[in-house]
Amino acid sequence: MSLEKSWRVRLKEVRIDPLTRVEGLGRVILYTEGRTLKDVRLEIFEPPRFFEKLLVGKKPDQVIDTVARICGLCPVAYQLTAVEAFEGVFNVKVPSHIKRLRRALYCGEWISSHSAHIFFLHLPDFFGKESFLELAKEKKEVLDAGITLRKAGNSILELLGGRHIHPVNLRVGGFYRLPSEAKIHQTLSILENALPVAESLLDEFKKLEFPNFERERVSVSLGEADNYPITEGSIVSSEGLRLNKSEYEEYFEEYQLPHSTALYSRFKNGETYEVGALARVKNNFHKLPPDLRDKVKGHLPTNNPYKSLLARMVEVIYALRESKNILERLEEDEPFVEYDVKEGEGIGITEAPRGLLFHRYVINKRGEVEVAKIVPPTSQNQKAMEGDVFLGIKTLNGDHQVTAERLIRNFDPCISCASHFIEVFVE
Questions:
Q1: Strand partners, 264
Q2: Is 345 exposed, middle or buried (0-12, 13-18, 19+ CB in 10 A)?
Q3: Are 114 and 205 in contact (CB under 8 A)?
Q4: Residue 16 clears pLDDT 50, i.e. is over it
């Protein structure tokens, strides 16, 4: 019997199985000795999806369609990160109108994904409810507002992506086609109606009772860009790290633990970090519009994970304004630029709704993928989630299961995204 197994035999397990109101399948196990919490383990047991292997042999535009299937909530993030990597290999310089439209499309995904988590998964925790259906009996107007925001995000995805689930309009060099003026005006009308709804909800959410819980955390995101980062900028940390995107693998590494079908991530010095909306706001608060900063003064930036709800709401408002500004100033132009296929290696890093997303591809002279590596945000957050649960159980009063689940939900984990590494080892 291994040392770890003999140690665990002495401990009592509290199993939270499965985790509820998160995307995908996972569970949390709390190991206690007497009344003392000794260890926390987040077990992601959703079957591996082998996406890195599935991409081998595919052409870039086939990859863009395939990686969209990794996630139904953030397909654009996977597509645009792959596009960035391929355009780096092929030395494609896209014009400014395509860059702006891609930013608007990504904003649509932030609005849609954040709204789904805020209103249908996260918000019931602040009212002590089991589900959004139970919450809707008392707060129907809030959930109606959430549906309005999610529809606004989806309208941008449909306009620029061709459809809101697994969009089909992105390609290396730009878009297959640009939207008509009539459809742009129709979408702008939806955004104009949604914006005051979002701003009013932020004021309401500031009044929620947030548990008094903070933990020192190293936050990693994109930063040092001209605007609030989505696809632009370098890699930054709250501890002062500044890296070019090509240096990612020199400083970060993945590692495997036997209980998880998703790889963990850490700095190569062993330090844990986290990514996501709370990290983005922490590292880029000065890039938000002044009135938004004033609105959340005293709440953000913060090390309190429960206030990730506010960080996501701030980003919903920012994304609504940003996409509206881009669409209002759109001028008719070509949908894409041509390019020549070359062999080489390309890296893409963007800010998915749940945080930093890394792609690396090696392309052969036939223009096919030979190596694909993808590091999704949820796998980068696994260790931080366990850390929050460990400290939260020790410091917060209340039922351990409820506390653990709420602390995990603060991260908006997308477990299906995380579970697609290549090899499985059975102990």
A1: 255
A2: middle
A3: no
A4: yes
Mean pLDDT value across residues 282-297 = 97
Angle between helices 140-161 and 181-205 (to 10 degrees): 150
Cα gap 391→211, rounded to integer Å: 13
Distance of CA 354 to the CA centre of its chain: 2
**What are the backbone dihedrals phi and psi of residue 374, each rounded to the nearest 5 degrees, phi first?**
-130, 130
Mean pLDDT, rounded, of the chain: 92
Kindly state the percentage of the chain with pLDDT values over 90: 78
Alpha helices in 90-223 (DSSP H): 96-115, 123-126, 132-136, 140-161, 181-205
Is a pLDDT exceeding 80 seen at residue 24? no
Q: Find how far residue 78's CA is from the centre of its chain.
A: 10
- Dihedral sign computed on CA atoms, order 319, 324, 329, 333: positive
Token pair, residue 290, equals 């002044």
What does pTM read for this prediction? Answer: 0.93
Question: Environment class of residue 23 by beta-carbon count within 10 Å: exposed (0-12), middle (13-18) or buried (19+)?
Answer: buried
Cβ neighbour number for residue 269 with a 10 Å cutoff: 7
Helix, strand, or coil (residue 38):
strand
